[in-house]
Amino acid sequence: MNDPARGEGRPRGAETVVDEYFARLARATAASRTEISAEELTELRTHIQDRLSATRGTAADAARVLDELGTPESLARAFADAAEDPASAGRSSTGRLLSVPYDVRPPTADRVALRVWNPTDPRVLVPKAFGMGWTINFGALAVKAHLVRPDDEDDAFAAVPEGVVTATLAAPIAVLVAFGVLAATAWSGLPATVPVHWNGAGHVDGYSSRGAAVLGLALLAVVPVLAAVWVHARRRAPFNRVVASAVSLAFAVMSVAFLAQTVVSARGGTGMWATWIGIGGFLILPFLLLVATSRLGSAAERRRDLPTTSTKGRAQ
């Protein structure tokens, strides 16, 4: 069982309690020959950090949070039972179908965040957190572009100022407002039936009613933004909140682009320029948001560690 590097953002007392728990868990899984993946361990640590963020972070707080999980031995048995459950045979919740990965487990904020931003994973395309196919690991892209390093942060985004974490939500909300403005101004000029699908050459080959088309695109924009607002409102870990902002930004941008494409085509325009711009925005804007926030966090972490390093140097 490979245990990922522990976070450094908690007081030493809580950190020691958590590390001792994971050490016991490692011994228990080794004794039972149970395999817990690095991703599952990371999700477990992220969950613990998220719960501790709502406390003072003392050793007693850590003990209470870990009590919710049960003893390391019982948790290891639970993983072993899940792996050997005959009822699950033949219908695994994760796997591959015709070489395409799938995951039908209920999605969690931790799993979604780890798939979207994981600089320690060199794969650019990773299995979706829910559904079939792949999603983009922006963290791997950032490493390949030499914009971040895999070990830049001990705990992703943990050192980012609270105000900056909250401010990341402004980006998808601003794009959502732009969608509303475009829909309101273009509505009266749209015919009852509007284009909603185009072939590879850019020619319209599908139509829908005006109301259904705009409503569908509105849901594509609004639902992810509301999900991001919920993650922020629940005061989840900075990692979860920043990634939620980035994901909702991507969907909001695509919604605006598709609406613009519909409006242009309904007015007799040709070409797919609005869609191509939207695809570019879908990829680039969340990437820039994540990279910029990560670099802010790395810089803040270095500034925080500098006094400690300087003090040690003077003591020597």
TrEMBL record:
> InterPro entries recorded for this chain?
DUF1648 (IPR012867), DUF5808 (IPR043831)
UniProtKB keywords: Membrane, Transmembrane, Transmembrane helix
Q: Does the keyword Transmembrane apply?
A: yes
Segments crossing the lipid bilayer: 169-190, 210-230, 242-261, 273-294
The DUF1648 domain covers which part of the protein?
A: 176-220
DUF5808 domain location is: 119-143
Q: Pfam families from the xrefs?
A: DUF1648, DUF5808
User: What is the name of this protein?
Assistant: DUF1648 domain-containing protein
Q: Lineage, please? A: unclassified sequences, metagenomes, ecological metagenomes
